[in-house]
Amino acid sequence: MLKAVICGAVVFPGLYYTFRKILKSALTHWSDGDVVLVSERLVSAIHAVVSTASGVIVVTSCRDVIYDSHWLVNGFALFGAPYMAHDIYAMYQSYFHNRKGKDPSRAPSGHSLQTVRDFLLKDWMMVLHHLTLLLVYLPIVLFFRGGLGDFFIGCLFIAEFSTPFVSLGRILIQLGLDNTMLHKINGAIVLLSFFTCRICIFPFMYWMYGRRFGIPLHRAPFHLSLHCNLGNLLILTPQIYWFTLLLKKAKRLYLRQKRGPGEGHKDRPKTD
Fold this sequence. Notes:
globular; single chain; mainly alpha
């Protein structure tokens, strides 16, 4: 267990600082905010790829959705835990440098409690999401579920499938390629993959659970304990909120392209 945590604590911050160094050297015209933002997105995409691959392996290996187990569940949960803590730090760095770059006269000269407070107020939902996964769901996965339901944990790992496309979209905007066909195709993939893997995955898990016990989908939630349903709801609710933000963003881009260039860009909402 300790080896997996240490490995994650080395890999994700190591990748982040490596990307920062490479981008700063290769793209000297980029600001610190640009470098930090893209570095954060690249690390997020790598974490998501590993998460999705782990989830696919677990899901395809578990024939019995309740009792079958796979070592990757605990292994990746421990390996990925440091990423959650690191990403909060990386988001703060991105917020700090971008605020400094947009209005240097009003931006803080250094880090302070006020800067941290402003960051937490701005990105409170993402920070809360990360902390909940780290402080609530991680102990449940490791200690309190009794080794049951590895299949469903694998499904939650697969939910990260959309993240690399979200990150790619933000990087394309950073490179000034937001009016290209690549960005449009990627945007469609973001909406489809997010809806499928972060929202539809929950009815799928209930359906698989009901299939295991021979009960229909609409009765599956009533066959589960209250805390299981509440846990799923706590994860699903922010996904629905972020999906609505993605839809609004897609609508703005579509209307802007119909009117033609000239409207300012707005940041794509961050989704884990």
